[in-house]
Amino acid sequence: MVLEDQLNSFLQSPVPELTIDELLLIDWALCSSSGCIPGASLQELQEWRPFRESLWEVIIDADFPGPNNVNPKPNPFDVGPVNASILLPIIPTSFRWGTGPDCGFTLKIKLAKVIFGRDPNANKNQASSNPAPPDAAAA
Question: Is the confidence at residue 126, as pLDDT, over 50?
Answer without folding.
Answer: no
